[in-house]
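Working notes for the structural subgroup meeting. M.R. asked for a predicted model of this chain before we commit to crystallization trials. I am recording the input and output together here so anyone reviewing the notebook later can reproduce the run.

Input as submitted:
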Amino acid sequence: MSFSGPPYGPFFGGDPLQVQNSPRRATLSQMTSTEIRNTLYLTVLPMIQVDGQAFGLTQQMLTLMPDKNFASRFFADEADVYILTFKNRLRYLTGGHVKGYEFFQEPQPDGRIIVRVVQHVE
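Returned structure, recorded in token form:
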């Protein structure tokens, strides 16, 4: 995935609020002088292997995307299961600069749910 346009944010000499308010960018909000939060969205991607001996192997991958447009829209009975699955793997995704995650279910007008994930980094 690539983004067009000039870079924004404190790392590029811009205003961090430009990043937060830009619809094309992940949200970076400074919480303290050393802690930053990244707003991400839970996504389930179907994957099919197309080479090697595993050709045709089909599976689903759970990942986080920086754009709400790529968020999976879960039915109410699915959201908790996917959040729990992700939470059970956090020990492998936390460490170094990544300090933790928070999960928020956001109901949508069609009755489905988007899961917003706040990643805390230092």
